[in-house]
Amino acid sequence: MSHTCEPDHNAAANALTAFMCVGITISYLPQLWRIVAAKSSEGFSPWFLLLGSTSAASGVLNIIVMQWGLIKCCRVLSIGSCIEATAGVFQLVLVWALFSLILVLYMIYYPADRKYVELDVDMPNHLPPRHVKTPVKSEEWKLSITLSWVVLLHIIFITFTTFLLLATNPSPDATHRSHQLELWATFLGICSGILSALQYAPQIAHTFRLKLVGALSIPMMVIQSPGAVLMVVSIAMRPGTNWTTWISYAVAGVMQGILLVMCIVFRIRQHKHGLDDFGHPLAGASAAAHADVPSSPASQTPSPVETAVGDAVGSDVRSEHGVDVVEGEHAAVGEETPLLAKPSGGQRKEGGVLSWFKR
């Protein structure tokens, strides 16, 4: 075992893998934060999340099978050599974990107003229809729940099958695998590639249909699209891997680039129309729209009721304080003019609201 477990020191591959792990984590943070900050996962296709999660899981188990001999060598290697030997496995596990976290946040922050069916009930007496929320789940919400269960069952099934084959088909050394393991690893790699190729198709169609960016993170795609090239090179440089291990990430990078271009175009289009990424009016555009609305003449001219109330209040003030309100150009008002003139003759008039009723 010690002879076959000699560590393969590749400084370039190790540096690239470390850089990729940091870059992968940084690239997913904008997407995770965007969903949490917006408290909405609107814009995601549940099929996209299903295919992405199952593709990433298949890729992880593919590289575990391909490098199982190196993983077992950790029993005789130092911690540093073990980390170096299994860095490729950790890299793909990180991708799977972060993408699966997007699925979890998608379910947590699914828009509440879209979970259940709403009906328009006609009201009597020509009243506008009333929106009633029913306990019936919407079709998209039911689909999201179903696909989430599929993701969970898929990872359980392929994990159980993988470790069952690894336990019943031991490899003779760290670089050779049994025929059954070779077939299973190839199957996982091809499935990962097919699922990854199909992954972005429903999301591209969903985004094109909505014409909205939604909760999709453009910064994440800006980082990940060119990073797919480094991802493929990093995996291909690891020992014990072949094209079935990295093909899914190459296909995903191309498809993600297409989605990125679409999102940029739709964001520019939405902002030109004064809309945010979710199709809601922007704050500045909404305020400008209200400012541009001219006030109607009715709002500038006091109504008869307002006129009557104003006269009543004015009469009440005159009666209470004995003030004669003089209108016109003869009312000379200066700084020395008292606000409330004393009643003539020292006699206080009967005032208050009663005087208004006696008019």
From TrEMBL:
Gene3D superfamilies hit by this protein: 1.20.1280.290
Keywords: Membrane, Transmembrane, Transmembrane helix
KW Zinc (keyword) present: no
Main location: membrane
Keyword Transmembrane helix: yes
Membrane topology category: Multi-pass membrane protein
Chain residue ranges for the region called Disordered: 289-313, 334-359
Record field: compositional bias (Low complexity): 289-299
Annotated TM spans: 12-35, 47-69, 89-109, 147-168, 183-201, 213-237, 243-266
GO cellular component annotations of the record: membrane
Subcellular location(s) of the protein: Membrane
Name of protein: PQ loop repeat protein
Species of provenance: Trametes pubescens
